Fold these 3 entries.
Entry 1:
Amino acid sequence: MDGALILLGVFAVLGYLIGSVNFAVLVAKKYGVDILKEGSGNPGATNVKRVLGKGPGNLVFGLDVLKGVVGTGLCHVLVKFIDVPNTAEILFRLSVAGFVGTLLGHCFSCFLKFKGGKGVASTIGGLLVLLPIPILIGAILWVTAFALTRYVSVASILLGVSLPLSCWILPLFTSFKFSPAEFWFAAAIAAFNVWTHRSNIARLLNGTENRFVKKA
């Protein structure tokens, strides 16, 4: 039991260090911009896209997705070198530890005085490892919601909320099955996603939330 807890802690710490690498700050710096002082001040892909344009913003988004994949999936590689049963349950637990660490690192980076982004892109990357079908459904909903509203925050919140709903509804009509652990994990991610967007929700209610407007 102690060994299992140590492993969970190790992968959580590794995930945290990986997640703490903020690509928004690094990419913006290449353009001579301090993203923490521009736009909304949030070191994430959305603010980079708003300040520097589609190219740099999409690059940061892609790198953050990759960060989520690496931080979450690292255990699938390293477990081969560790004397531990390579079972689906153990890999899921270790992956969750890496995912949680990566997400916390992204949102509360030790390199940025514990500031960070919203964690949407890194969440997508991690869930591609843990819950690939629900996150693909969520991605479709994200694109649809953004196209209709032009609010990134609305699309991101809808993506998060859709995860536990997919884990609950899909088994009723398809052959896809999800364990109780996977459902509650998805529910926790949805709750965390809403919490990180609490300032956006306040601005949406006040009518002051920034939206992307199509240029003529």
Note: The chain is about 70% helix and 0% strand.
Entry 2:
Amino acid sequence: MDGVEALPPLRETIATHGFDARKRFGQHFLLDLNLTRRIARAAAPLNDGTVIEVGPGPGGLTRALLLEGAKRVVAIEVDARAFGPLLELQAVADGRLELVEADALRIQPRDLGPAPRRIVANLPYNVSTALLVQWLHAATDIADMVLMFQKEVVDRLVASPRTKDYGRLSVLAQHVCEVRRLFDVAPTAFVPPPKVTSAVARLTPRPPADRLADLRPLERVTAAAFGQRRKMLRGSLASIFADPVTTLEALGLRPTARAEELTVDDFVKLAGALDGE
């Protein structure tokens, strides 16, 4: 046995380096190799292009990606303390692991390696939504994303109209990607255990011809509509349309409807109308 498989168990590595999870980084370490390999397999194929991991921490998921045959992993970590265990992993990874000490919010996927680029990550809870929205804007540069969030975030990602979880994130994600919930992960799988259940989702960007080239108008209309979701659209959209009633009626939408009643395609029509004003 050699390489990644010869490394000591992750708990031992963490203890050796005195690497404890910090709340300010949103850290919860995933130590179960069977579970991390399940996540890695969900992102297959890994044997070409670049796999981007954000927030590897001590490297549990990173190990799994390498064991599942990833050709090249770029791991982005903002916490310098993680580089003790990560450098040990890099030393046995046969040149397949690149480490980047940086804030992932400041990096574009296209700058991290050749296509196809797959993002696979147990995301830090405190920046998970911000990261996802950034990646939705950069979807042309991404082949696939397999991401772990708090379960409530995945509930929002897959939500249908007229449900309580349907909102701005649902519309943005479903317009840009095919979104699929894969499986839930219990708090006991992490060290330290979070107070909530987590869930893994796969988001596969749609062909460029099937989505807006610029998401900013869609962000504006969803922010306005869901920002005041109890209001009728004729009221909630008054801040961004000079005459929301006329605009809505021209698109075949009821001015008295509320945001959660509109489909993703309805919001795309509104974004087009906003872009034309």
Note: The longest strand covers residues 177-185.
Entry 3:
Amino acid sequence: MMRSLKKWIQPLSLVLGCCLVLGGAAMAKESDNDDTSADALAKAAQNPLAALVSVPMQFNFNNGAGPYGRKLFNLNIQPVVPIQGEKWNIITRTIIPVNSVPVGETGSVFGLGDTTLSLFASPAKAGTVIWGVGPIAGLPTASNPEVLGSGKWGLGPTGVILVQAGKWTVGGLASNLWSVAGDGHRDDYNLFTAQYFVNYNFGHGWALGTAPILTADWKADSDNRWTIPWGLQVSKVTHIGSQPVNLMLGYYDNSEHPEGAATSKVIFQVNFMFPTKGK
């Protein structure tokens, strides 16, 4: 564990330092803006069930992938569209991956990966505890199914629960996806995903937190089943022109991972947020 911690302290320090410099410049430009609005948007960005249209674009730079320890690039385009009702809200969350996967010592395959679509039903009038449940589907949309996708359709349950109290946002999200149809020549899958998140909001749209994504391939042997990351991220609500965005920068080290999987990653996310008037 200590070896793992030492390995990510230096890059994490670099990530935090860069974010402070960039965010400081953004804050200087926002001196006349409403800090309460920035803080509300920061909390909305941390709430997977917020009644807010947003389009996060997450750039993942994975290190140490494959037998030659190469870089693996992944861009997740993640539109969130809430459908508000009188008693219940339906929140749609889609993840469309664009990947560059290393092949051999020097080659790579670039293209679209498999898409996942989650639908959460959540009470329209949330209390202290905010929650939502629903289905998750895996869509075989990969442009190169042999390298970038599974060739299978998937289905399963998903759920999220969180609390936003004072300056804190704490919660978790989990899902399990089973292959149900598709290419009969491809292996079936049984994949578990969980994410816990803890964020502390400092004000002026700034937040520090952690939101690692844990995965398990239940069909793999026990030595190659889990991916368990540890790390931190810094985020800042700012504006690009009149468009509010939440910028996030983080570093995560995989203390456990399957053979050939990435050992660590740097994340940079730009979340375009579209609040309704009056909010």
Note: The chain has one domain: 2-274.
